Amino acid sequence: MRSAAKQPFSPSFSEARGSWGRFRRWNRFQGHAENDKVMKVLIAGGGIGGLATALSLHAVGIEAEVFEQARELREVGVGINTLPHAVKELATLGLLSGLDRVGIRTSELIYMSRLGQTVWQELRGMDAGYDTPQFSIHRGKLLGLLHQAALERLGSAQIHTDHRLVGFDERADRIVARFERRDGGERIEAAGDALIGADGIHSAVRSAFYPDEGSPIWSGMMGWRGATEWPIYRDGQTMVIAGGNAAKFVFYPIHADPAKPDTRLTNWGIMARIGDGTKPPPRREDWSRPGRLDEVLSLVRDKFRLGFTEPEALIEATETFYEYPNCDRDPLPRWSFGRVTLLGDAAHPMYPNGSNGAGQAILDARRLAAHLTSCTSVAEALAAYDAERRPATAAIVLSNRRGGPEGVIDVVEARAPHGFDDIDKVASYAEREAIVRGYASLAGYAKDQVNTRGGPVRAERQRKGRT
Ligand SMILES: Cc1cc2nc3c(=O)[nH]c(=O)nc-3n(C[C@H](O)[C@H](O)[C@H](O)COP(=O)(O)OP(=O)(O)OC[C@H]3O[C@@H](n4cnc5c(N)ncnc54)[C@H](O)[C@@H]3O)c2cc1C
Predict the structure, then answer these.
(1) Bridge partner list, 109
(2) Does 246 map to a domain?
(3) Per residue in 98-122, pLDDT tens?
(4) 187 and 71 part of one domain
(5) How far is the CA of 358 from the centre of ligand 1 (A)?
(6) What percent of the chain stands above pLDDT 70?
(7) Is the shortest distance between the CB of 48 and ligand 1 below 6 Å?
(8) What atom of ligand 1 comes closest to residue 198's alpha carbon?
(9) Are 52 and 96 in a shared domain?
(10) Are residues 186 and 315 in the same domain?
(11) Ligand 1: does its nearest atom lie under 6 Å from the Cβ of 167?
């Protein structure tokens, strides 16, 4: 892509608006060619990663411009869990009250076998002694929250929809990116100090550096996800995952409507193995591809005996649900090339076990902004970001292939496929703890890792005299 023949493009946004040469004294970037000039970063992709990057850069005084290929930023998807390591970063960006408005603070996590027997149970978020909550939230609402904040802080002129990145060239002192619009077939050029590929699992930026990589790797597991109003389970804030990698049921509430005190908007997910992992997925990964009722019901029937809810009934009560193949890519040897780098799913797409993909994209965004403010050149900053974040996220990608923290369910189901009388005789507490809490440490959300990082939640608690 970088070597693509030059096209007759229209002038860049920035040049047309005259913002490229704007100067501000407070720019903290140390080694920019013109010390007083505001650094400007182009971001391809307006998903959770791209918008978190825009907000993080804005927070440190770096200009950001987002280019999203979709015609509009729609609030698609179903539930995701945002763990305390990422929530702390979002709180630092002033988004905690927004999260409380649209999500639910997760209080507890239960891992069960398919027969409804508890394998692991622990408190979560502030109920577990973290200084920061964990949220169960509609993915679209999280995206909407980031989008609204980006519009308010950066201005709508910096967030472009219907702009698909089709190429980029690195020049001596800047990067020039090219975009195409579906409406009118217009072609546009934009210039900046850096280009961030936050363009998801099918990243055009990634494929420019790795043109032979091909399609994402499919594990053979297909996922179906939906959300519907459902009677409250336990305290209305509890997340349950039942079943190992062969067939998994995920259940957690994502929104409390005050007008419906007895129910919660409840996210459900089914994962089932329908392939052996040697072929590409039957359909492309897409957050808004509707699933088929007959297909998912046939995979659920007679598989789960949970006691607290009936997966078939929950699925049948859901008007629209979506399917998503469980895909990832192999970790890369390098993300950053001069003024260009990768972030979020473009850099490290991972299986959803462990609820970490969006969280890691948010961590990427914050660390990228930190490196850009402390290094002496863009290339050095992107290399430092690569050196820090690439190994950390590669370890999570690989762990998720083995089941992540939910691997504890696989261990127990393999040893006791027909159930157990005493879980400790199947797998000791220490063994189960090592799997679940070992993963938390690996992914950076263990309690001591999160609580030792400062942030507004801690500051607020200390102000109120709590530890
Ligand atoms: C079933 C499932 C469950 C999950 N559950 C969780 C969870 O509980 N917790 C969690 O943290 N994570 C979870 N994740 C992962 C999480 O959703 C992703 O990691 C996260 O959305 C990645 O964000 P992103 O911005 O990097 O990529 P995306 O969300 O894919 O955004 C990329 C954006 O780039 C745009 N784009 C693509 N190509 C171009 C181009 N050429 N030019 C311009 N724009 C372009 C796309 O339209 C899109 O808007 C889950 C994922 C799946 C599949």
Answers:
(1) 122, 239
(2) yes
(3) 999 999 999 999 999 999 999 999 9
(4) yes
(5) 7
(6) 87
(7) yes
(8) 26
(9) no
(10) no
(11) no
Say yes or no: 345 and 322 in one domain.
no
Q: In angstroms, rounded to a whole number, what is the distance separating the alpha carbons of residues 344 and 54?
A: 13
pLDDT of res. 283: 66
d(CA 402, CA 225): 21
Task: Tell me the C-alpha to C-alpha distance, in Å, between residue 420 and each of 107, 302, 405, 436.
Answer: 26, 19, 20, 20
CB burial readout 241-271, b (16+ within 10 A) else e: bbbbbebbbbbbbbbbeeeeeeebbbbbbbb
Taking CA atoms only, the protein residue closest to ligand 1 atom 4 is 352
Residue 21 has pLDDT above 90, yes or no: no
CATH of the domain at 294: 3.30.9.30
Domain count within the chain: 2
pLDDT band per the 50, 70, 90 thresholds, residue 154: very high
Measured at the CA of 170, the angle between CA 72 and CA 48, to 5 degrees, comes to 30
- Mean pLDDT is lowest, of 195-204, 299-308, 332-341, 398-407, for 299-308
Domain region containing 147: 13-75+141-215+333-400
Q: Is 177 in the pocket of ligand 1 (CB under 6 A)?
A: no
Q: What is the pLDDT of residue 295?
A: 84
Atom from ligand 1 closest to the CA of residue 345: 26
- pLDDT of 298 over the 80 cut: yes
Could you give the CA distance from residue 41 to residue 196 in angstroms, rounded to a whole number? 7
Specify the ligand 1 atom closest to the Cα of 360.
Answer: 11
Bigger pLDDT: 458 vs 151: 151
Spatial distance between the Cα atoms of 389 and 395, rounded to a whole number of angstroms: 10
Q: Are residues 197 and 243 in the same domain?
A: no
